[in-house]
Design brief:
Number of strands: 17
Radius of gyration: 20 Å
Structural class: alpha+beta
Number of helices: 5
Shape: flat
Largest sheet: 13 strands, mixed
CATH architecture of the largest domain: Roll
CATH superfamily of the largest domain: Baseplate protein-like domain - beta roll fold
Strand content: over 45%
Length: 275
């Protein structure tokens, strides 16, 4: 096991409150579906002032959780606060924070706008992401690399009207794309394809735990230690005794405890589609 994967570190930021030196436990679910990713974060023994501060925050307060090691961390979750409730667990006071990635914006966001023929796709996507309150993410890269700027898709013009997320689904499906929100940013993928870039190596030497499993459809399930920048949409290269190959991560479930045993990612992945 690499020496970099030791000495756990967690940073939780909720609005202006930053927690770095308390016990923290978290459970985060992220996938490639349009529905919001979710996070459940337990903060142990906050001060009375900090507990009061959290309870008074609005639902759209920003929540970020970074985790990893003293050698480096990455963002595992960035989203909107749903609730913060304090309960007693033995001698501890535990404040449970529930959050969703883009959930507040997607519940209510609507868009109503018309676009002239040959409008570049990033302009159309920008109107939707503005309404949803998320960053445009990799829209420009995908439009340039895959869709010739998107102009061919909009030769006859386009009108968007209704729920922003539904309109985004309609537009991406017609373009051969999939969308999700990852860390507050729109992520576009070609159907069945992973993000461009170097694959994350999953092997016993890089944090792979136990033997990965393949089902009868060739879909992978594996557990690793928390590895930086391993999230849905990433390409992974599995190098184990019985399973090898390139896969696209479809789902990642992160479980961590600064004062406990768990510090893992469970992933579901599919063989990457061939261009």
């Amino acid at each position: 096991m690499g020496s970099a994967l030791i000495r756990r570190k967690v940073i939780v930021t909720i609005d202006t409150l930053r927690v770095t030196d308390l016990d923290v436990a978290f459970r985060i679910e992220r996938d490639l579906k349009p529905e919001p990713s979710t996070a459940e974060i337990d903060l142990y023994n906050l001060t009375p002032d900090h507990r009061k501060q959290l309870q008074e925050l609005p639902e759209d307060a920003r929540v970020t959780l970074e985790a990893g090691y003293e050698s480096g961390t990455s963002v595992l979750f960035r989203g909107d606060l749903t609730s913060a409730v304090t309960m007693r667990d033995g001698t501890d006071l535990v404040t449970r924070v529930i959050a969703g990635d883009g959930s507040a914006a997607r519940r209510t966001a609507r868009v109503s706008q018309s676009f002239a023929p040959n409008t570049p796709l990033p302009s159309v996507m920008g109107a939707i992401t503005d309404a949803m309150g998320v960053d445009t993410g990799n829209v420009a890269d995908i439009a340039r690399a895959v869709l010739d700027g998107g102009r061919r898709l909009l030769e006859g013009g386009l009108t968007l009207s209704g729920n922003a997320a539904s309109e985004l689904t309609r537009l991406t499906r017609s373009s051969g794309l999939e969308w999700s929100v990852q860390d507050g940013r729109l992520q576009l993928l070609r159907e069945g394809r992973a993000l461009d870039g170097t694959a994350v190596l999953l092997s016993p030497d890089t944090g792979l735990i136990d033997a990965p499993e393949l089902d009868d459809k060739g879909q992978l399930r594996a557990r690793t230690l928390i590895i930086p920048d391993l999230f849905p949409g990433r390409r992974v290269q599995v190098a184990s005794e019985f399973v090898t190959g390139l896969f696209r991560v479809e789902r990642a479930a992160y479980t961590g405890e600064t004062n406990g045993e768990e510090w893992t990612i469970e992933i579901d992945a599919k063989p990457e589609a061939i261009a």
